[in-house]
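Sample pair:
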Amino acid sequence: MNLIPYGAAGVVTGSAYLLELEHARILIDFGMFQGDRELEAMNIVPEGLHARDLDAVILTHGHLDHCGRLPMLVRRGYRGSIFTTAATIEMAELVLRDAAHIMEADYERKLRKAQKKGMKVNRDDAPLFDADDVADTIKLMRAVDYDTLLDVAPGVAARFLDAGHMLGSASIELRVMDQGTTRRIVFSGDIGPHGLPFLRDPNPPEPADVVVMESTYGDRNHRSLADTLAEFSRIVQQAVAQNGKIFVPSFAIGRTQQLLYHLAELFKQKVIPAIPIYIDSPMGINATRIYQHHTELFDDESTALLRSGELLSLLTSVHTTETREESQAINDVKGPIVVIAGSGMATAGRILHHLRQNLDDPTAHVIIVGYQGHGTLGRKLVDGQQVVSVLGDKISVRAQIHTLGGFSAHAGQTELIDWGRHCIGPTTSVYLTHGEDDARTVLAERLQETTGVVPYLPTYAERLIV
């Protein structure tokens, strides 16, 4: 068997793994690269993929860095099934439609600017896919239940296990018939931490022959949630005292809902007053509605709060701003307020307009609550860059920048190792992906100390014999 990583090999984005068997070719995830221009230039369908020859595609979850190139694959002729959970189908449709809209809007803006100058736009600026490609992609998706063995290709069965990373997220266990024996191949997808609001904790697979494992935070543990919430509370209290505005670049799916839950907790404890909260993200609003469609996936605590009606009663100060005009009107609202807007790495979306308006305000607070890839505006703010470019304007950073790693939807190092202990045995081949080299090198060392197995760190398009 051959395994070829067509993404997330030494970087965090672009997850894509081609598994070549004698009798089948299966693609696990086909995500978009995000970050600087060099990374985004890798958003292609690689030569060796041959979309029309694939027998199946399996999708672990609906974040863009895992599903974002699927419409490109369909545009190139893929017509087979895309197996994933029901919640992921809804999430992926939301994410892909949003991506198509952003690319089309960006292209139209560049086209207008070029025409004014009597020039042509660069061919590379054309959208990678459009709304029709997204619709064609969603039609190919087939809903799969957790913990059910399903035939996905000749001689290959798949089982989806709750990964606890976002609603509908899964780790994948493949059972492959190979020369009369059955081999287990596990793809971790993104592994969540324990205790995330709404989500159940990750369900690790049984021991496997091959494990392809994420390593996003393989070099460190997150700050405890209790400490993170205490700091979050202090920041909000400070902003309230200053009548300042709080801006949170947030992933629309997962992080936005998590923040609402924690703000409701702070309101309940009367630690902070029930100040206005603006969900300034059409995708975040729709993602919250999808959460309401799939309460059967909630953990026990969140289910109890929802059934009692207490959660909704605590969040009466939430405003959803779906239109551009509603978003722009936030500029005229006096603080203290909380604005939650995408994108999570501040690479696109409405958060850019808020940052352009407010980064030079010393009473403004920007709270970074998730991973920030190299080259992104979010990463530049985390790294303390004093002047940044936002929508073409140079802005001096005078706002207070806070990084709260304890809100991450990714497992930290200890939780990754604990997950790995369940499925890594003495003869397991382990491949660490979905992590920058520093992180996965450290995790490889820790896993070797813990399991005795020496993990391998593959590179992009490397053909691995597994």
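The first strand starts at residue 2 and ends at 5.
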